[in-house]
Structure formats: structure tokens, C-alpha cells
Design a protein that fits this description.
This is Acyltransferase. This protein is of the alpha/beta class. It is built from eleven helices and nine strands.
Length: about 280
């Protein structure tokens, strides 16, 4: 068996069949199109090339692979000790998570957990730092246990409260509504929240497709299929990452509902660049 064959590879047909049994009826030419769109060949090349890297080390290799330059603003706001929830906007849907995991993970000696769509667990190099969230159904008992375990640990938690990546709304690239769960978790586990603003955007094609889909009343986020392609478009780019000061968990009292506190933190995040 060759090294390439012994390393777990991405197989879009297999993923579709496991996550959606009805996918067996999808014509071959559609599967082939999806294979090209998600850059399956390039992704498998990455998995083969860096097969011996895991977690934060793997993320740092990806920074080099995509030839990214990261400019960190107010990085001194990152405490050297403590347990935190890092709440960030989600402009890219891929590389932003890679960059934040690399930067925050390196700062805290690899001790991070990253809340992600459970589909991303197919990337075996990242299972050690990923905590699966099922965005398309109820959380299973095992997922709930892993989430609980992550918050009770001394690992830093990285989360994108919007869940989905940013969309163009009223001419501006902004996150959708931030979910309240990170506020509730901050209070429950006594973790201060560190706001993070990641400066970036996807292609106009991505936003047009999202708006067309929405205009036709289609709930399925078909534009998400193109996120890997958006990621490969970002090669050689420079990104600015802004870190705010920690917000004490005691801030999130009963004067506002958790959902209102979530939007309040979102406002702080988007103001980081303006300072």
C-alpha cells in the first residue's frame, strides 16, 4: 500500500452518501462537478503532503501553503493565562478559521478547541482540535458530551457565533445574526469573551449567488459548496486580524437577554477595525 493510499482522503461521493443517503440518486456528472468545485484533488494533495502534521501544526502549514501574510492588531490584548471564548466574525468561511486557529493556537501552545460543522471532521488532521456541531439537525449525545468536555477543559474555545459565513447585506459584508449560545456558555463556564475581527471577503460571485438563492426563497445554502473554491482564490493574500480586550463573563447579566448580549458583542467586534 502506498503512502497516499494509507492516508485518509476526501471522497465527495462517499461523504454525500454518508451524510445524505438520497445522494445515491445524484447523477455522476453532478458529483464530478462537485469534486472539481471543492478542489478535491488539491485538498487530498494537502492531506498527503502534511499527513504527519496535526492540529495547530497542520494549520500553520496551511498558512504557508496558501502563502498568507497575517497582520495582527492589538495582539497584546491576548492574556497569557486564563480560559477564554474567542468570538469572531466569519467573513470567509474557511481560511479565517485556519488563520485564527494558527494564531491563537500558537499563542496558547496548541491548547485550543474549535467549534465546527461536523462535516469538517472528515479532515483527520484536525480532529484533535475540532469539536463537532451538527448545523443541520439536533446535537447527538456524543456531540453534546464533546462540547461539554471542551468548555470544562483548560483549552481556549474559538467560535463563530453567526454559524454561517458573512453575506452581503445592504451593500456591506456582515455576519448574519449571532447565536446566543456563546454568551450562555461564557456565563455557565465562567469564561471571559475575547472579541476578534477578521478583515476579509469572498468573491462577488459568492454573494450574488447567495442573494439570488435567497430571492427565490430557497433555504438550502447552495453557495456554501463554493467555499473551498473561495479559499483557493485567497492564495498570496494579506489579512488583518484585530483582537479586543477580554469582556468579563459577569458582564452578561440579566439586564439584557442572551441574544441581545450576543448582538452587543457583535457590535464590539465590528468596531475593532474603526478604532
Amino acid at each position: 500500500m502506498t503512502q497516499a493510499n494509507s492516508i485518509k482522503q476526501i471522497d465527495i461521493r462517499q461523504v454525500l452518501q454518508e451524510k445524505a443517503p438520497a445522494a445515491k440518486k445524484i447523477p455522476g456528472f453532478v458529483v464530478n462537478y462537485l469534486t472539481r468545485t471543492i478542489h478535491q484533488e488539491e485538498l487530498n494533495d494537502i492531506l498527503t503532503r502534511y499527513h504527519d502534521k496535526d492540529g495547530v501544526d497542520f494549520m500553520n502549514e496551511l498558512i504557508g501553503y496558501f502563502d498568507l501574510t497575517l497582520n495582527l492588531v492589538d495582539v497584546e490584548n491576548l492574556p497569557s493565562e486564563g480560559r477564554y471564548i474567542f468570538a469572531s466574525n466569519h467573513p470567509l468561511g474557511g481560511l479565517d478559521g485556519i488563520c485564527l486557529s494558527a494564531v491563537i493556537g500558537t499563542h496558547y501552545n496548541g491548547k485550543i478547541r474549535y467549534l465546527v460543522n461536523d462535516l469538517l471532521l472528515y479532515l483527520s488532521n484536525l480532529k484533535s482540535i475540532f469539536v463537532p456541531i451538527n448545523k443541520h439537525g439536533a446535537q447527538g449525545k456524543e456531540n453534546a458530551r464533546l462540547i461539554e468536555e471542551a468548555y470544562t477543559s483548560d483549552n481556549q474555545i474559538i467560535t463563530f457565533p453567526a454559524g454561517l459565513c458573512s453575506r452581503k447585506q445592504n451593500g456591506h459584508i456582515t455576519d448574519l445574526e449571532w447565536k446566543k449560545s456563546f454568551i450562555q456558555k461564557a456565563v455557565e463556564y465562567k469564561r471571559n469573551v475575547i472579541p476578534v475581527y477578521f478583515e476579509g471577503k469572498n468573491s462577488n460571485f459568492f454573494y450574488r449567488l447567495a442573494n439570488i438563492r435567497k430571492a427565490f426563497g430557497i433555504k438550502m445554502n447552495y453557495e456554501m459548496i463554493y467555499l473551498p473554491d473561495e479559499m483557493f482564490r485567497c492564495k498570496h493574500k494579506t489579512f488583518h486580524i484585530y483582537f479586543g480586550k477580554p469582556i468579563p463573563w459577569q458582564t452578561f447579566d440579566n439586564s439584557k437577554k442572551p441574544a441581545e448580549w450576543a448582538e452587543w458583542v457583535k457590535g464590539i467586534v465590528y468596531n475593532l477595525k474603526k478604532k
